[in-house]
Amino acid sequence: MNLTFCDKCGAELPQNAKFCQTCGAASNVIEPTKNRPTRAWYLMPIFFSILGGIIGYFAVRNDDRKFANRLFIVGIVLFLVGFIGTMLFFGALFYAFLHSPP
Ligand SMILES: [Zn+2]
Description:
Blueprint: E1 4-5, E2 12-13, H1 43-60, H2 65-98
Antiparallel strand pairs: 1-2
Helix pairs in contact: 1-2
The protein binds zinc ion (ZN).
């Protein structure tokens, strides 16, 4: 149940009512302002990679599902980039080691 009330006379309003049926005032339904999670959550996956992505996902999931998904994806992408980068680095190191002059 999600009841709303007229902010002029306090009468109960049907959901999504445009006007108050009691006093005729345009209903200015004050919806509970959604807690938009701060974009600072992006720092989580940036610093902690996939772990930060998962933590951020669960932290903002209830407030902003899309943002939560984005944090999760950023975490995975950064994890993969870091993983591939590390592999390339050590691969190059190994290659250089094998081909180094005696
Ligand atoms: Zn009213």
